[in-house]
Automatic annotation (TrEMBL):
Domain NADPH-dependent FMN reductase-like as annotated: residue spans: 4-144
Name of protein: Chromate reductase
Example of a GO MF term: azobenzene reductase (NADP+) activity
Highest taxon listed in the record's lineage: Bacteria
InterPro entries found in the cross-reference section: Flavoprotein-like_sf, FMN_Rdtase-like_dom, NAD(P)H-dep_reductase
Matches recorded under PANTHER family: CHROMATE REDUCTASE, NAD(P)H-DEPENDENT FMN REDUCTASE LOT6
Organism: Bordetella ansorpii
Listed GO CC annotations: cytosol
Keyword Oxidoreductase listed: yes
Length: 182
């Protein structure tokens, strides 16, 4: 059985990130033939002076994305936009010119926030950035998850049945999108 590889970019660097919890819960909803590999976004700030001799963490990120059939972006909202770490990773992935690893990738975006808006503004900004870089984004349904205490347990199980069904439906649609687009 062939494995579909999904690169996962969680926009928060915080170890207790609710978006990391969401990503781990989404991983459990994926079919067995789909493997998630989490990218490390602890990268140096983009500097064009370094693009022809990529720092090792950047080279690892680009290899991960290049070898993946899809990319899942799990983003919090920082000041009504995407986190700096996520934007930095995207910038590195486009360079040097002609070596854009995002081009043609099957992308999906989800995000969580304690607020009822559930990272909607960040996701809209992220969609604009990714469209400019050639990512083939799944557009619907959108996942603007309001994270409440206990929604995802310590084993990364979604405790609310309606939320679990909604996220399972999204995952099923995303995997079909990756298989169609990749």
């Amino acid at each position: 059985m062939s494995t579909t590889k999904i690169a996962v970019l969680v926009g928060s660097l915080r170890s207790g990130s609710i978006n990391l919890r969401l990503a781990r819960a989404m991983e459990k909803l994926a079919p067995k033939e789909v493997g998630f590999e989490f990218a490390d976004l602890n990268l140096p700030l983009f500097n064009q002076d370094l693009e022809n001799d990529l720092p090792e963490p950047v080279a690892k990120l680009k290899t991960l994305v290049s070898q993946s059939q899809g990319v899942l972006f799990v983003t919090p909202e920082h000041n009504r936009s995407i986190p700096a770490a996520l934007k930095n990773a995207i910038d590195w992935g486009t360079r040097p010119w002609g070596q854009n690893v995002w081009m043609g990738k099957a992308g999906g975006i989800v995000g969580a926030s304690p607020s009822a808006a559930g990272s909607a503004m960040a996701q809209q900004h992220l969609r604009n950035v990714l469209a400019a870089e050639g990512v083939n984004l799944l557009t619907t349904p959108e996942v603007f998850l309001q994270m409440k205490e206990g929604l995802i347990d310590d084993q990364f199980q979604i405790t609310n049945e309606d939320t679990r069904k909604f996220l399972q439906g999204w995952m099923d649609r995303y995997v079909a999108w990756v298989n169609k687009t990749a």
